[in-house]
Structure formats: structure tokens, C-alpha cells
Amino acid sequence: MKSESIYDTYDRKTNLHFDSRVVHGALGCEPVTGAVSFPIFQTATFRHRGFGLSTGYDYTRVQNPTRQELERTMAILENGEEGFAFSSGQAANMAVFGLLKPGDHVLLSDDIYGGTYRICSEFLRQAGCKFTCLDMGDPAAVEAAIRQETRMLFVETPTNPTMKTADIRALAEMAERHGLLLAVDNTFLTPYFQKPLELGAHIVVHSGTKYLCGHNDVVAGLAAVRRKALADHFRLQMKTRGNGLSPFDSWLLLRGLKTLSLRMEKHNANARAVAEWLKRHNRVKKVYDPGIGGMLSFELDSEEAVHRLLSNVNMILFAESLGGAETLITYPLTQTHESIPCEIRQRLGINERLVRLSVGVEDVRDIIWDLKQALES
Ligand SMILES: Cc1ncc(COP(=O)(O)O)c(C=O)c1O
């Protein structure tokens, strides 16, 4: 069918700096009406003007202008060829692991989000694939673990929740040498602090629910890729599984993205101040501080102290998730990392004394005051 989409040409904004790109997106303004806020195309289907004629849009499961604006914006921000907006980070990760065929093997960060581990332990096994978890920060160990049937490295950096980091460029060179795909979950740092595709990764994925959205009001997954063949795979997954992000949620993501740079600066500054304060508190035995971004974890001297902290925080919210304006405190053992087998959790330090903090954008004095009163209650 002939496509006459008015949205076909968009500007990759290569002349603009990152902070301007987040504000201006791909098309930015809607070209017909000039609407500054890109509209929500709340429609399931699109009328054809005649036989053999299409506007470039047929059915929202397959493509929708609002989702497309978000996808193109993500491709611009991550410096990829194409972007994809899924209904959750899990859906985006399922599309990544959907690249594997029976018999394939994947190497994963050991200290990975519990839901990602569950994809491997439940679905990959059923699909006849194998996986090995290891410290991706140790390139020699990674290289030694590569087998004949290894096809992918899947990395979180920093990891969730113990904030271990990996050298994406070194892993990308290794992937190239062995003909592997390198996928990076960039949820914690976002393209504001880290651009995995520029460092040689083939795929970057996000729980868009977190910093990219930034307001704890949407569940979304985003991905960007460097190669056309990978883009075709992601498109087919979305079309077939029907897990593309809705027009309204895509619009909320576009709105959230406009302030990504501002928010990340404030998250980062607040997190560093909180980490320094925690390091000096006598109930805090260990602080996992990656030194960048808004996330940190810390270990208290007893399980009871953790229960008291979680029960007594006031402004800080005891809730799962991260990356929103509000400071959230999470208990990985029973929340985000419940799916990880107990012996692996203990080995990684995900124990009953560990809490994770997503440091918000409030006045840092209020965050520290709340932690102090809850720790000392
Ligand atoms: C690092 C990371 N990746 C992926 C996911 C899954 O994303 P979602 O909850 O949007 O499905 C999460 C969720 O917490 C996460 O923290």
C-alpha cells in the first residue's frame, strides 16, 4: 500500500545538545496544526483514503504516531537507528530474549533485576536455552564463561541492588571478537549519564517506568538498537505479541522526558549527599554507592533496624520501583529480588539487612532528616 505519511521525515537533532534533544523530541511540534505538545492519537485504527492508499498508519498495535514520536525520540537520545516503546520494561526484555533460539546460551549480570532473572529461569529454560549469571565487572571471568553456543551478553550497569559496574566498551569488544550480541539495561543511568550504543552495545533497554518517565505514573519499556535486522526483530515482536505502549502512556513518557536532564542532575546531587551522610551514621554498616545517578543501597546492623526504618519513614515512601520525583525506599529481599534463589541472594549481599533507596528530587535536607528520624526511632 502506498504510504503518504506526513510524519515520515523527522529531524535527528544532531546539531542539538542532549539537554535540547530531550525537550524537542523527534518531530517535536505536530506539523499540521503546530501543536507544541505532540498530540495523543487516541485511535485504534486509521482510515484509508482509497484502495491502495495508506497514511502510513493502519492499526495502533502495529504503529501509532504518538508512540512513533516517543520511539524516534528514544532512538535520538540513545543514538540508535530505531527505538521501540513497549507496555513494560519486562515486555522490552522479553523481546530481547526472544532473539535466542533453542540451544543458545546467554551470560547475565549476577546481581540483576529479579524480573529479568525470572524471564531466564522460567521462559528461557522452557525455550531450551541456557544461562549463566556472573560478575560482568570481571572481563576475564566473562571471557572464560563464553561457550560455543553463547549468543548474548546481557548486562545491567550499575546492577540492581548492589550497584556493581561493568565496562561496556570492554564487553562490546569481547562481543565483537566472539560474534555475540551485547544488550545493556540502562534503566539506572539513562542516556543522560550513559549511552551504551555509543560504547558498542547492540541493544539498549529500559524500564521506562523509572527515570525516563520520572513521575511514577506509567509502566513502560523502551529499547533502541543499532542494526536494521535487530530493529525488524523488535518490530515483529511488538506486532505479534501486541505489547506496544498505548498512545496516552506514550504521551506521558514524552512529557516526562522533557525534564530528564534537570531531574537526573538533581537525583545525582541528592544521592551523593545522602550517601555521604549514610556513610557517617553508626547504624549503617555498608553503603553501595555507584557514585553517579540517583540510586544507592545500604546495609544496617540488624534486620530489626530495617523493619523500624521501613515502618517509620514519613516523607520517604516505602514502595517498589525507582526513578520518580519521590524518594522511595525498597526492601529487595521481599520486593524486587524475591525471584532470585536464596543462596544467590546471600552470596551477592541481598540479605535481610539491605535496603535500596531511589533518591528523589525533594530538598535533600528533608530526605536526610526523614532517614535520621526513622533510623533513630
Ligand atoms: C533494572 C530494571 N530493568 C527492568 C525492569 C522491569 O521493568 P518494568 O517494571 O517496567 O516492567 C525493572 C523494574 O524494576 C528494573 O529495575
List keywords for this structure.
377 residues, alpha/beta, Aspartate Aminotransferase, domain 2, Aspartate Aminotransferase, domain 1, 2 domains, seven-stranded mixed beta sheet, five-stranded mixed beta sheet, 13 helices, globular, binds pyridoxal-5'-phosphate
Q: What does this protein structure show overall?
A:
This protein has 2 domains: 2-257, Type I PLP-dependent aspartate aminotransferase-like (Major domain) (Aspartate Aminotransferase, domain 2, 3-Layer(aba) Sandwich), CATH 3.40.640.10; 260-375, Aspartate Aminotransferase, domain 1, CATH 3.90.1150. It has a 7-stranded mixed sheet, sandwiched between helices. With 377 residues, it is α/β, with parallel strands linked by helices. Helix 11 (303-312) crosses helix 13. Strand 6 (150-156), helix 6 and strand 7 (181-185) form a beta-alpha-beta unit. The chain is built from 13 helices and 14 strands. The termini are far apart. The mean pLDDT is 95. The chain has helices at 18-24, 65-78, 89-97, 114-126, 139-145, 168-178, 190-193, 228-241, 247-257, 260-279, 303-312, 342-348, 364-375, and strands at 2-3, 53-54, 82-86, 105-109, 130-134, 150-156, 181-185, 203-207, 221-225, 284-288, 295-300, 317-318, 328-330, 354-358. It is globular and about 75 Å long. The structure holds pyridoxal-5'-phosphate. Pyridoxal-5'-phosphate binds next to helix 3 and helix 4.
